[in-house]
């Protein structure tokens, strides 16, 4: 059995309102179950106002199954009123995520108030 080429480091701020998932290594098919569990755990608190930040700066590659999980995380955040952001995408990872719109123009961001329409937008 070969050693996994991927790792997720999870950090949480003092209040527990922001969860950072740092994806390190190659996130291909083998990593999808680990990423699924990491995303599930990140959203486990389930309280409104939670913010999940997925940092892909140290991600070497990302496969279609993991891209799908990142998209599911975005949809889940929107439905539940959570903040969600994918940050620091570079090179091939940025190109792969950009094809799905996950990092365009800079990052795909579900603000905490995603379900509300601001007054500026209604004018």
Structure, described:
The protein is of the alpha/beta class and 123 residues long. The chain has one domain (6-122): Transcription Regulator spoIIAA (2-Layer Sandwich), CATH 3.30.750.24. It has four helices and six strands; from the N terminus they run ββαββαβαβα. The protein has helices spanning 32-42, 64-80, 91-100, 119-122; strands at residues 6-12, 18-27, 51-55, 59-62, 83-87, 109-110. The longest helix is centred in the middle third of the chain and has 17 residues, at 64-80. 28% of the residues are buried. InterPro entries: MlaB-like_STAS, STAS_dom_sf.
Describe what is shown at a glance.
This protein has 123 residues and is of the alpha/beta class. Helices cover 34% and strands 27% of the residues. Strands 1, 2, 3, 4, 5 and 6 form a 6-stranded mixed beta sheet that branches.
State the name of the first-level CATH class. Alpha Beta
CATH architecture: 2-Layer Sandwich
Can you say what the CATH homologous superfamily is?
Answer: STAS domain
Domain module count: 1
Strand composition percent: 25-35%
Structural class: alpha/beta
* Model regions low in confidence, pLDDT < 50 over at least 5 residues: 114-123
The pLDDT mean sits at 83
Terminal Cα span = 60 Å
The ordered string of helix (H) and strand (E) elements is EEHEEHEHEH
Number of distinct beta strands: 6
| Rg over alpha carbons | 15 Å
Number of helices: 4
Major beta-sheet overview: 6 strands, mixed
């Amino acid at each position: 059995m070969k050693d996994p080429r991927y790792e997720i480091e999870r950090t949480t701020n003092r209040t527990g309102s922001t969860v950072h998932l740092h994806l390190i290594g190659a996130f291909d098919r083998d990593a999808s179950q680990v990423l699924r569990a990491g995303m599930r755990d990140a959203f486990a608190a389930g309280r409104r106002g939670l913010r999940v930040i997925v940092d892909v700066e140290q991600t070497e590659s990302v496969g279609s199954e993991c891209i799908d999980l990142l998209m599911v995380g975005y949809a889940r955040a929107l439905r539940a009123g959570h903040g969600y952001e994918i940050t620091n995408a570079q090179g091939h990872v940025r190109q792969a995520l950009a094809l799905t719109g996950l990092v365009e123009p800079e990052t795909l961001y579900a603000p905490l108030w995603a379900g509300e329409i601001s007054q500026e937008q209604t004018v």
